[in-house]
Amino acid sequence: MEASLDNASELPGTENVDTADPRGASYTTPTFLQSLIDAGMLIPTGVDGIYGRGGAYEAIAEGMNALVTQAGADQHAELMRFPPTTPRKDLEDSEYLKSFPQLAGTVHSFCGNERDHFRLLARLDEGEDWTDQQQPTRVVLTPAACYPIYPVIARQGPLPPAGRVVDVFSYCFRHEPSLEPTRMQMFRMREYVRLGSAEQVMAFRQMWIERGRALADELDLPHTLDVANDPFFGRGGKLVADNQRELKLKFELLIPVNDGAPPTACMSFNYHVDHFSTVWTLRTSDGEKAHTGCAAFGIDRLTLALLRRHGLELARWPRRVRAVLGNL
Ligand code: ATP
Ligand code: ZN
To answer: Which helix (H) or strand (E) holds 300?
Structure first.
């Protein structure tokens, strides 16, 4: 990974933020991030957007994930779990680097000989940069939980007539260091992914939009649904993002979480049209290009939304909400 870029102060627009102290000069009261840290919910590591999680936080996150499982029980989805890495070749083929080069995280490793190792240690001793001695490996970090499955399913042959529904869960990496606790560099995403005809995918997405809203209601989380776009890179990316909005390919469920900021996308409902069957040979039972879509639940963002809404002391949460989350 590009260690030298892991510093928010190098990103445009954040020059004046003191990254060592979440209570930067622009804040007059403790930030939500600082109160999460003080309560032991998040454990700072010194890198913005990379946190350890405390026991109470994890209990909420696990309850949240279990609730999503319950909401999808009738889907009889195939469960697939991958480590939070993807083959580099698959990321290259997926065109992720065309759309989001700024977010991708690649894994590098030392591949030198003993002489190179001495040099590396000497440079470390001198406080010099040593990272140019790291070589790219064949793996990258997974940017979204559903990414690893498309090439795997494509290799398994055409879909059955009913298509497929897959249940995935992964820590994901996006290089977007931020002081907003909801914008992490590594976070958990749970998804139900639909592969089939356009009609099957559209019906699935509509159903999950309704289930997502019902889920937020059950947790007493105020929410709105809106059309959204992904942060496509560059000037060309703006056109792609406009097109994505116009075709209503992405909906987000937004919940207020951060201090003085607009509500945060905690779930997203995406229709990829035939993008993944253009890059991989994903076919329906009658040989057509398969369409795909996914319902994504940001487990960490939902956990933070619950903490924002109901407070940092679980004992004082509404009993109904605690029950829904498995008797926290
Ligand atoms: P955003 O627009 O805020 O960058 P997104 O809606 O584009 O996020 P998706 O790509 O749809 O994100 O990812 C699915 C879900 O993963 C989001 O709804 C959100 O809950 C979660 N998520 C995305 N990025 C982050 C992040 N940096 N930190 C924590 N959770 C995230
Ligand atoms: Zn997805």
So the answer is: helix 299-310
- In which residue are the tokens 């700072």 written? 44
- Which tokens hold the place of 102? 């700024």
Query: Residue with the nearest Cα to atom 15 of ligand 1?
Result: 298
The per-residue pLDDT for range 72-91, each reduced to its tens digit, is 999 999 999 999 999 999 99
The SS3 call for residue 58 is helix
- Do 292 and 269 contact (CB within 8 A), yes or no? no
Ligand 1: residue of 268, 269, 271, 303 to mutate (most ligand atoms within 8 A of CB) is: 268
- Give me the CATH number covering residue 78: 3.30.930.10
296 lines ligand 1 (CB under 6 A): yes
Tens of pLDDT, residues 22-31: 434 443 456 9
CB-ligand 1 contact for 266 (6 Å cutoff): yes
Domain extent, residue 110, equals 106-140
Q: Let me know whether 136 and 53 are in one domain.
A: no
